[in-house]
Amino acid sequence: MSIPGDQPFRPPRDAGASEAVFRILIVDDDPALRRTFPHVLAHAGRTFDETGSIAEAISQLEHQHYDLVLLDYRLPDATGLALLDWLVEHRRDEAVIIISGEDAIDAAIGALRRGADDYVRKPYHVAQLQRAVDSALHKAALEKANRAMSQRLKASERLHRYLVESSPDLIFTLDAEGRFSYINPRVKALLGYERNSLMRRPFTTLVMPEDVERICTLLAQPSALPGESFNVELRLRRNRGAAHEDDSVTVSLTGIPMQAQGADPRKAGLYGVARDISERKRAEEIISFQAYHDQLTHLPNRVLFKDRLELAIAQAQRRTGALAVMFVDIDRFKLVNDTYGHAEGDTLLRAIAARLSATLRRGDTLARLGGDEFTVLLPDINTPEDAEVIAAKILDALAAPIMLSQGEYRATVSVGISLFPRDGATAEDLTRHADIAMYQVKRSGKNAFRFFDPALNTHHRERITLENDLRDALGRAEFELHYQPQVSLAQRRIVGLEALLRWNHPVLGSLGPAGFIQVAEELGLIGEISTWVLEQACAQLAQWRHEGHDQLRMSVNLSPFDFDKRDIVSSVTECLERHDLPAGQIELEITESMMMNDSAGVAAKVRALRAAGVSVAIDDFGTGYSALAYLQKFPVSTLKIDRSFVRDLEGPMTNPIISAITGIARGFDLDIVAEGVEQAEQAEALQMLGCDIMQGYYFARPAPAAEVRSWLQQPSMVFPLH
């Protein structure tokens, strides 16, 4: 080997070569030469190992991979050919340069045939060896990079093929004629076709007829930009032989045109991805249905009814036609829910909805607004009598009982009708006026129908104004108590006073309870009003007691709602404690109807009040369906004879009802008070029938507390007081 003194030859390296690391194994039996090679071949990124025999080299290769092996041809235990054979047998990819002193050409040919990359004959120039090593390492690096790239490509291809083949989407390619050139296996599960059966067939064979023209237009359009995609929803037909409920699948198709080679702008085909959106479309349909329909009856709801009504009004205006709107409310529906439960109430609603639907014409709309309220749109009617005929059919349809799990139930409805254009020009006006007419039916006895009358609207507006004013009446201190004396003829004195509520309305003047108590009950304000009345009556009685009138009894009227929704017992007893009043000097008046419609809770509260010492009177006794059994269940203390019996009184024996009531009072050891006494003869007859305590205009009209004080201060009572 010749080692000149000039610098070793270093071939030019491409970018990044300094970052490469090459491992070189030197196999030579000459120790001096093994030590020289690393110095001669030294280069950034190169590392060297050395062995002196074939056996040592194989042992080293079994534990380490090398980029290059510098192999001496003749070694103590074998020739270098043996190592070449071992590398081939074990499918190793190390580059090998044979360094040999053999002159025979056969040695070089044998080495190259066994896979040697180069053959350097001794003696050699250092630059020759360096070029051979650089060339072998460069080739090895290229092969290594090529192998890595090939492996990555194969891995990428396997990955993409796996993704395409196992994709939940339908992936396909079309040729320039729109025929399938590839389709993934998803087509079998999605559409029921074998993919081989679709190859070379037009894509449009899978498209439902109504979507064919649209997709053909998209496929025929030239692409303006390479890779420009389009997206469209369409339906693909399913294989009729496959077991599917639907004959089509709704998909979202994304298409990317493939460009022809060269400057030709025509398409060479299409990449397509079709995603099954059938579930999403069904979900959207369900959501849309729920947004516009009632979930219980599946009838149109308020929103959809309003849309259809507005459309019908627009059409009627163009044709100068007419239409009718009905507002239908189920009578006593709350009774079903309260008695049998909401499940039975739902069953009743569905049954009534079915019967109402059966009475209507094609083109009419029945909607459920919520609760027990329905509305009906009747377009294209000629006369009001047309709407009247359908309203009569609705009432007749509900004549037969409805079978519930608890037994038969006979439902009735109240129906209000408004007409376009007579009763309004907008959907809101027509619906509101039909509602007003329906409420008038409710107040008139239910189970009927009536048309809207403008006079009803005036009454309705007055009612709304009254409701608004009533909500603020307490805060504006507009309520006042008047008192009507209850006198004892035998004692010639006032023994009690009934507190009567008056509303000093800023516009309507003084209103009695009959003008607003029912409204207060419907608005849920009666509890606050009753609390105020009880508080004011107790405060006034406490003041009169302080002035020396300690034998007076105060009567206060209570609403049935006070017993249903309030803890009436604690409210009364706490009020008495606040004003330091004996319980026996307060008497609470309840109606006979409340006694007859008793629930266990009301009876228990009456017993609790009596146990606390509070008197309880039955007002207007005898006007309802009185039953003696209820007098045992309700431990009342007083019966009040209604003014209707007193009005017809002419002599002591001319009214058997009063005689019966006084007999009942004596039998149950109850006090008795007669109301509505307006003449001296009535007072005398009542006294002869056994009734001593009376009240009425004959003695005095209800008056404010200041006027009552003057009555109480008279040393000798003379009747009448006024």
UniProtKB/TrEMBL annotation:
Residues 321-454 form the GGDEF domain. Residues 23-137 form the Response regulatory domain. It comes from the Bacteria. Residues 156-215 form the PAS domain. It comes from Thauera humireducens. Keywords: Phosphoprotein. This is Two-component system response regulator. GO terms for biological process: cellular response to nitric oxide; phosphorelay signal transduction system. NCBIfam families: GGDEF (TIGR00254), sensory_box (TIGR00229). One of its GO terms (molecular function) is cyclic-guanylate-specific phosphodiesterase activity. PANTHER family: BIOFILM ARCHITECTURE MAINTENANCE PROTEIN MBAA (PTHR44757:SF2), DIGUANYLATE CYCLASE DGCP (PTHR44757). Residues 463-716 form the EAL domain. It catalyses: 3',3'-c-di-GMP + H2O = 5'-phosphoguanylyl(3'->5')guanosine + H(+). The modification 4-aspartylphosphate is found at D72.
